[in-house]
Amino acid sequence: MIERLLSPLLSDAIAHSPAVALFGPRQVGKTTLALAVGQRYQALYLDLESEQDLAKLAQPALYLADHQDKLIILDEVHRAPGLFPVLRGLIDQARRTGKKAGQYLLLGSASLDLLKQSGETLAGRIAYLELSPFNILETKRIPADDLWVRGGFPESLLAPTAALSLRWRQDFIRTYLERDIPQFGPRIAAETLRRFWGMLAHHQGGVLNTAQFARNLGVDVKTAGSYLALLVDLMLVRRLLPWHANLGKRLVKSPKVYVRDSGLVHALLSIADKETLLAHPVVGQSWECFVIENLLACAADKAQAYFYRTSGGAEIDLLLSWPDGRLWAIEIKRSLSPKVERGFHAACADLAPVKKFVVYPGVERYRLAADIEAVSLYDLANELFFA
């Protein structure tokens, strides 16, 4: 089994908080990770998509009280929102008897839904962790281009052939559209949402223009915005916000949007393998968003992520803002001989970042200028993880 970077963080959260919410897209490995960590606690596992396990919670207070000596894993907990007040009561009762941590591990596939339900009732009692698809540090024994082409979902990345990997991703998309997404919001025609998802893939890494998406779909702007919000909530799409400091510059104020898993991008665009990808117009943006998503997964919540762009052409692909105010500027190039553009120099002159990197597909780390380093994705991800 591939070791997940989140494993020690999850163990630490369980050790210090009475409830922990682990959320991430379906099929990303939440249950596998939860069960692996739960073995240390002889955890009790309940899948709330199972009628048998759901029946055990017909009287949740009684059932859960009988197992307060164990860590209880509740999978797809958003299916039983009525549980949260019960959990609050049991946690408070256990606190009065001296038990302060390691009671409940909640797994869910929709971040906003789970955060809202749990936040309203378990404030001060719950910790939150997000599990992303496999990243470059977790799959160091697998070629980086395989991770890029297939994406990081375990079943896709580890499929025995490229054809089976693509088929898994196509089935994954179909299942989300036809079965999973209707659980989380108003009913949306699967074909309409499939078209919207495909538009996002074609627009990978572009600045958001909701009005254009709405016109292409034949819906109003509010409806198109709700489609985007749903895919963001399901952790399938990311909105990368623009840097917002007032520098007296005309800044781009709309976020960039991209499908978070590169393998899903390629499946949405019917790109079967690396050769097809390299000849496709999306190749540059696919690589850029793949790099950004891996870096953010490895940085976790240590730094806030933005991009920077002005109307005058100054631009930074990824800007990391650390809690102490430091900025790291990261440019992304799909070239073995990367060159820094004038727009990056201009942006750095505006913002004065303390570190400047150019991520490229090579392995050697070297200086492009006195204060700019060319670095591999693996090396920078490793630096961020241990920062």
From TrEMBL:
Residues 16-118 form the AAA+ ATPase domain. It comes from the Bacteria. Pfam families: AAA_14, DUF4143. Gene3D superfamilies: P-loop containing nucleotide triphosphate hydrolases. This is ATPase. It comes from Rugosibacter aromaticivorans.
